[in-house]
Amino acid sequence: TYSGDGDIACTNCAVGFFANVTGLESCYACPSGHFSTEGLSMCTIAPVGTYCPTNFGPQSSATQCSDGTYQDMEGQTSCLSCPAGYDCSAYSNKTMCDV
Q1: DSSP state at residue 56
Q2: Considering only CA atoms, which of 30, 83, 68, 74 is closest in space to residue 50?
Q3: Is the separation of the CB atoms in 69 and 92 below 8 Å?
Q4: What local confidence, expressed as pLDDT, does residue 69 receive?
Q5: Higher pLDDT, 58 or 79
Q6: Which of 60, 65, 74, 96 would disulfide-bridge 15, Cβ 3.0–4.6 Å?
Q7: Could you tell me if 42 and 66 are in contact, meaning their C-beta atoms sit under 8 angstroms apart?
């Protein structure tokens, strides 16, 4: 939570922001590849198979990679295109197609 000048009470941080110390006048924005819901004291890293796009503003959740893409690392801002000869239906990794 935070409290600005003249505020009577503390206010929860908005989606995509966090407060991890007491006495703040405003909340911190979650870093790239992270998200938070309202009122949290820390952000959550986007898990493998998901991403948090930077051009969509604050995020309350990570977005699952779409068909034809994957992400095998956490905390990413985009998914990768599935290369030819691979199956990426798990969204979190690529598996070479069988012969």
Answers
A1: G
A2: 74
A3: no
A4: 92
A5: 79
A6: 60
A7: no
Tokens of 4: 């600005």
Closest by alpha carbon to 64, among 43, 88, 87?
88
Token pair listed for 12: 């929860």
Using alpha carbons only, give the angle 53, 75, 27 rounded to the nearest 5 degrees. Answer: 75
Is pLDDT at 1 greater than 80 in this prediction? no
Structure tokens, 75: 């905390």
- Cα separation, 44 vs 62, in Å, equals 9
Token representation of residue 34 = 């992270």
**Where do we find the tokens 């969204």?**
91
Amino acid at site 11:
T
